[in-house]
Amino acid sequence: MDKIKVAVIGPGNIGSDLMYKILRSKYLHMEMMVGIVESEGIKRARSLGVRTSIEGIKSVLEDESIKIVFDATGAKHHLKHAPLLKEAGKIAIDLTPAAVGPYVVPPVNLKDLQEEPNLNMVTCGGQATVPIVYAINQVAGARYAEIVACIASKSAGPGTRQNIDEFTQTTAKALCTIGGAKKGKAIIILNPADPPIIMTNTVYVEVENPDEKTIREAVERMVKEVQSYVPGYRLRVPPILEGNKVTTIIEVEGAGDFLPKYAGNLDIITSAAVAVAEKLAARMLGKEVVA
Hints:
Elements: E1 4-9, H1 13-23, E2 28-34, H2 40-47, E3 51-53, H3 57-62, E4 66-71, H4 75-87, E5 91-94, H5 106-109, E6 118-120, H6 124-140, E7 142-152, H7 158-162, H8 164-177, E8 183-191, E9 199-207, H9 212-227, E10 233-242, E11 245-252, H10 264-284
Parallel strand pairs: 1-2, 1-4, 2-3, 4-5, 5-6, 7-8
Antiparallel strand pairs: 7-9, 9-11, 10-11
C-alpha cells in the first residue's frame, strides 16, 4: 500500500512518541527524524531503521518526497520553520505553542481545515476537553466553559512548565473558537503524587438548554469518536446536570508507545497529530481513514 512520507523535527520525548505511532500507520511512512545534535532520539530513530539528520530543517526542505512535517521543537523555532515549509509546499503539523496556523481538534473541525498548509494542535488540555465542550454546545448551547486539567508532575517537562500561561490562555481560547462556548477558562494542575496519576480533566459548562439525557448522549458519542484515535480516552464521570450547570470528567491514559502510560497529556496530543496527518494522507491517496 502506498504511504505518504513524513518527517519529524525534534527528536525529544514528543518526537520519539510520534515516531512510534507513525511507524505503525497505514497511511504514513516515517521518512526522517531531524535534530541538530547526535541525541538519544536521533540514535533511537536510526536503530529503528529511520533515516536521520542533524542538519535541522535544511534536510527536510531538500527532500521533495516528504509531504507532511511534524514540528515538535518549540514556538520560536516553529515561527522560523513555518514560512520555509510553506514555501517548500509541505504541510506543517505544529505541536508547539506558536499557532501560526489555525487550531485543529480532529473530530470537531479537521474537515474544514484540510486545505490549510499549517495546523496547530492547541494543547493537551484542548485536545482532551474541546471535543466535550463542542458536543455539549451543539445540543445545549454553552454560555461558559471551564476546564481543570490535572496531570502527573512527572509528565510535565521543562517546556510544559515554561509555558503554563500559554497553556491556560490557548486552551481557554480554543474552548470558545472551536468548542463554541461564549466564554472560557482553563486551569492546569501538576500533581506530584507517586505513583503518578493518569491525566484527569474536569469540564464545567453553563448551558442555555439544560437536558441531561440529550447532553449525556452527545458526550458519549463524542467520547467514542475521540477513542478511535486515543483508545485510553475515557468518560470517568458521565455528565451531571445541576440547574443549568453540567459537570463531567474525562481521563486519558497513554498508549505507552514511548512515553509512560500515565502521560496521557502527552499521548493525546501526539495521537491527535497523527490522526490529523492520517486524514490528510488518506485524502492525498484518494482513500478514507479506517478507524
